[in-house]
Each structure stands twice: as C-alpha cells, then as structure tokens.
Amino acid sequence: MKIYIDQSGKIESTNQPTVVAFSNGERGAVLVAAKDKREIQEYCRIFNRGRIFIYKTFACLIFILIRDKLKQIDQIIIDQEYKGHEAEIKHYLLQIIRKNHKNFPKDNIVFKQIGKKSNAHLLAYKVHKGKENPDFTVRGNQLIPYLFRLK
User: Fold this and answer.
1) For 59-83, b where at least 16 C-beta lie within 10 A, e where not — what string?
2) Is the whole model's pTM more than 0.85, yes or no?
C-alpha cells in the first residue's frame, strides 16, 4: 500500500493544533493540541534540544499515525512541509520505524509536493478545523519519550 501524508497547522505554530493525516484507500489522522506542543517545546528547551523540536515531533506524529499499518505500507509519500530538512525527518522516522520493523527500507520514504486537492490534505484540514474527529489525540507526555530516545 502506498500512503500520502500531509499536515495542517505547523508544529512550530504553538498557538494552534497540528494534524498529521494519511490517505490512500485507508485514512487516518492524529492531532496534537497547541498546549501539548508548548509543553514539548519547553521540555526540549530545558534539555537544550530546542532545535530538534519541529522535525522530531513531525517524525513522531507520522509514526504514531501509521504504526499499526506498517506491515501493509510499501511507500510513504510525505508532503514537503519542511524543505531542506527532509533528510533529518527521514532519519528520525526511520529510527522509530526500525525499532519495530527492523528491515523497513529507507527508499520507501519519499518527500513530494502532495497538493491541496489530495485526500490526505483534505482530511488534515477538516480535522484541524474541527469538521472531523482525529483517530488519535496525542498528549505531550506521550511524545516526549519518543523525542528523547532518538539521537
């Protein structure tokens, strides 16, 4: 299965929630509230890890979103939310994935422009605006262990 992933509400915009969604036959969305993002950001600052906040959080949200579908996924196509940081995001995502699926090929994760008309974008947008419910709501204390296990 090939899936497309998009985000609505930037992670670094800590005054609004972030939604990461996937679509292609099946679909799903994960939401992290603004207050939880601020908690994570503060935790990263305290431990002098402020720079990792955005990209690791994005990778962790993607993993939480797709973790139950990993055995069926052949390719993950991620919208280019953070141009110039794709390698960093891919590195973090692969670290998490390979803790559970050791042989997941790195070439199965690619970054492309998804577009505003994609189903992943539409789902992320609807959940972000409160028109649909997320499949998961992630709290700050659920993300922090993922963020600090990664190198």
Assistant:
1) bbbbbbbbeeeeeebeebbbbebbe
2) yes
